[in-house]
Backbone:
């Protein structure tokens, strides 16, 4: 089973919509933030990616909303990577309030884009394992 990375994010007032809960687009931003934090924890930052000549891309995202997030809430966002044999991998992210109540689930299909050819790379797990200081953070 892949390792699960987690980060806590505080809801900010400017992220709310007219209903007083977190705007739907912000959930995607929280997911992106948590994925980048997991890459950083694995020792992969933008300088490392630029030197490697590739970077992560999101090809598809699905969000399932379960409960509201409101001003003052804190949310724990997880990242669990699932690696296969092709050019893509899946990231599952569970969102829970600090009191443990589940609020959303985000599932993404991702890949690694070669910055020169603008094509997806084969075997993204192997490519990330090569450049990560701590590949276990990414479930590798």
Residues:
């Amino acid at each position: 089973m892949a390792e699960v990375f987690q980060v806590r994010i505080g809801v900010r007032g400017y992220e709310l919509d007219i209903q007083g809960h977190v705007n739907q687009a912000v959930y995607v931003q929280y997911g992106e933030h948590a994925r980048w934090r997991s890459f950083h924890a694995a020792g992969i930052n933008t300088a490392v990616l630029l030197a490697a000549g590739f970077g992560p891309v999101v090809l598809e995202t699905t969000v399932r909303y379960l409960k509201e997030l409101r001003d003052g809430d804190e949310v724990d966002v997880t990242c669990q990577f699932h690696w296969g044999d092709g050019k893509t991998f899946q990231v599952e992210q569970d969102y829970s309030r600090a009191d443990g109540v589940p609020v959303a689930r985000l599932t993404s299909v991702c890949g690694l884009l070669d910055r020169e050819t603008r094509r997806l790379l084969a075997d993204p797990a192997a490519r990330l394992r090569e450049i990560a200081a701590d590949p276990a953070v990414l479930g590798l």
The first helix runs from residue 24 to 41. The longest strand covers residues 102-114.
